[in-house]
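ENTRY TYPE: paired fold submission
RECORD: A
CONTENT: sequence, then structure tokens
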Amino acid sequence: MNDVSNNPIELEMQELVQGVLQSSDGFNHNTKKTFLTIFKSFYYAAHCPSSTMDVHISKVLFESSLNA
């Protein structure tokens, strides 16, 4: 992955997430949790190769059920 610490868009996205998660106005815990889950999914999809995502999805869906 690239170093994203100096990317202005990345910094703005970090500010957005921090603002939502630290805000006490109008956002309940479940809303914040849902926002973070969706945000992480989009971020992951944008920054990880599809082959990596395929491996992770297979592990989560199939290895978990096989070990249960």
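RECORD: B
CONTENT: sequence, then structure tokens
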Amino acid sequence: MESPKTILIVDDDKGIVDLFKNVLEPDGYAIKTAYNGIDALEIINTSHIDVVLSDIHMPGLSGVELLKAVKSRYKGLPIIMISGMATAITRDKVVKMGSLMFMEKPVSFELLRKTVKDAISGELQKQIAKRILVVDDHEPTRNMLNEVLTSANYVAVLAGNGREALEKIKNAEKPFDYAMIDIHMPEMNGIEFIGACKNVCPATLPIIMTGEADTDEIKEAYKQGGFTLIKKPFDIPTLLFCVAQLQYESDSLKEETVKKEAFRKLPFYKKLYINLRDNVIFAPSSSKVKRFIRTAGIVIVFAAIGLALIATAISFEKWINQGHSQIESVIDKVVGYLERDEQRELQKIKEFSNWLDFH
């Protein structure tokens, strides 16, 4: 049997350590804990660790110093940095130093579990397979995004406007996973591009980037098919976090799509049962009205089932009674036939007896 993967949680806040431990332990991981960088480094040097979750601000040896020490000795060990007080400069620094990902406190538990799972499986490290099309008419922004995404193991392709980006999508050997699009651009703006992109390559998820667009423009971008919004100016860790969050949400969306397609192919009676189970019998109720409706629905359903069973029983009883009547009728006919035959035989015997007496 394969031994469980080991996660090292490093934070000077015992409450955070215990919280993360309670979130990850049910997934089958072996958990080791440390409350400062010095103890964490000692554990890493003496134990096999699969993933490190580390806070940044700690006494003794900080998370940044721990990251530097670990990467100098164990380059392949995945380290995920977590903090609620880090500055943009610090977050940028840890990403460039080799942190697999930076996560902002408070952390989504589902995102934490997925990030750890992907770090262990190698999916987080293989994000090079994720292709991102960057569409912005501002060259310094394009170059900055290219550098950031490339350093985070994404493949970035650059375009200066929507028309150029659309040509790159049409000529690409395989679809882009995401397209990061500015709204205000010449020739073809971001809103027009999003609409055209959804027609040409629906698999590419559009990420809207803007610092100037008004509410109506943002609404229109979403209406055309925009998946999420990142506001300018953005710092590097926030950008990478948003892309990682987008990947999690898009994976969830794909799973939901697969479930819906599987449900669509079910026979009618199975769909009816599932809808009844999920939307009536076991549906969560948030108000008295909903509880009443659910209860009434359950009563009606079971009453209908009861009436159907009673009707079936009555029909069965009628069928049995009718069968008995038919059987009794047949028996009466048979008895009648036997009696007539008996009378005939007796008559013949009597006639034969009279004939003998006469002769």
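NOTES ON RECORD B: The mean pLDDT is 80. The longest strand covers residues 205-210.
STATUS: closed
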